[in-house]
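FORM 7B: Structural annotation worksheet

SECTION A. Query
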Amino acid sequence: MGRKEKDNCCWKKQTANIEEVFQVMEVLGCGAFSEVYLAKERESGKLVALKCVQKKDKDGKNKALENEIAVLRKIKHENIVSLEDVYETPTHFYLSMQLVSGGELFDRILERGVYTEKDASNLIQQVLKAVQYLHKNGVVHRDLKPENLLYFNTDENSKIMISDFGLSKTEEMGIMSTACGTPGYVAPEVLAQKPYNKTVDCWSIGVIAYILLCGYPPFYEDTESRLFYRISNAEYEFDSPFWDDISTSAKDFIRHLLEKVPEKRFNCEQALRHPWIAANTAQHCDIYNSVSAQIQKNFAKSKWRVSSPAKYLKPPVNPAKPSAAIVTQEAIFCFMLYKRNHVNSFNFYWCAFGSGSGTL
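SECTION B. Predicted structure
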């Protein structure tokens, strides 16, 4: 089960200067609303990932960050990056996070040299077990994607870790209907701005499984309206020749997760019982050459790391039909151009409007 909450009065540690507590060593990453640093705790010498978030509201409150902290304090799992401590200065919040050093999912696949369907199955099994734990504890991640899957260390058999709970929400916070996440990975009901539940995470796992087996996303288009249309109607293919050597069991597994109707979609328990995960139906033949070539075309860091300025967008007026009218009150898209073979397509990063100051 999840962690038991401590008294709310003492979980934030006050400090006038964070460098009195940590030696900040180097930048690990930057986002629209935060920076992450490699840091060493001065007292213990322990290395951590230190997430720095500037305060937004005049009263020092940061509702989105408070939400993220509330979720992280509730959970503890071997495949989830953990929150160690929270510090507050007059101008910033600092989250001391467990440091994972094994690198990102795509990078490790490219470094392998040999990669099989069974490797993909083992990865998805770890993700499913972690998300099953989240769901049992009433937490919905809402932004599962390969970029948020990190390896714990550099060992060949390192476990995978789920990170970035900035858009996560607990079911006790009420009905979820906010359109958030990364559209290439979000379920149709999210794009439709309908009330949704934890099965949106299972859809995202289906998208990740698809990518792990071919190296490109199931939904790709040259305009956002067409992309929304394909997602909303669960329109995807197992294209030849990329899927010719992939087992029928793997395809069946993906079909159960990329199910348009949430009530018919596999939950984590059902997915973990599927033969592609639980039995030995995942093939052991090497698919590295095909998958790695497609990953490099579609997910090169220079393409998915650099984003254009944020735009205010709104989901389609009628998600069942392509529409040119796409603007919004509740979301921001930072979109990145990528290429699949000779087709230019957009992969959008969608984060909650006012992240760092608004509610989710």
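SECTION C. Observations
The CA atoms of residues 312 and 332 lie 5 Å apart. Residues 4-9, 302-360 have pLDDT under 50 and may be disordered.

SECTION D. Sign-off
Analyst initials: ____
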